[in-house]
Amino acid sequence: MLGWAVVFLIIALVAAVFGFGGIAAASAGIAKVLFVIFLVLF
């Protein structure tokens, strides 16, 4: 689960660098949700 959060965070950072704001925001949101789920489970 944490691995997926990191993957979506990296996707968000790369998308932000290249100027894809919508994709960056969506990926960052997914990363946040997955990270919270990870924290709750462990």
Any key phrases for this structure?
42 residues; mainly alpha
Task: Sum this structure up briefly.
The chain has 42 residues and is mostly helical.
Biggest β-sheet, characterized? Answer: none
Structural class: mainly alpha
Helix content: over 70%
Give me the Rg, rounded.
Answer: 10 Å
Q: How many domains, in number, for the residues?
A: 1
The secondary-structure element order is HH
Number of helices: 2
Uncertain segments are none
Question: What report would you give on this structure?
Answer:
- The protein is mainly α and 42 residues long.
- The protein has one domain (2-41).
- It is built from 2 helices and no strands.
- The chain has helices at 2-18, 21-41.
- α1 (2-18) packs antiparallel against α2 (21-41).
- The longest helix has 21 residues, at 21-41.
- The model has no long low-confidence stretch (mean pLDDT 84).
List the helices and strands and how they pair.
Blueprint: H1 2-18, H2 21-41
Helix pairs in contact: 1-2
